[in-house]
Design brief:
Helix content is 92%, strand content 0%. The chain has 2 helices and no strands.
Length: 61
Amino acid sequence: MILDFILENTWVIVVIAVGVGFGVVYYLWAGRKKRQEDALLDQYKAYVDSQGEQREADGPY
């Protein structure tokens, strides 16, 4: 009954397809953003580590 309603009304199919499309695009966008944030965090950690090593090499003040 519900399947018949969906298949007989093309607008329902279009709404479902658009929803799935937005879901896929959001999933890809969120993954890309997460990778960018992880890369920036790794750069920051490397910077902080290098500053700590530089301070240790300079010795006590």
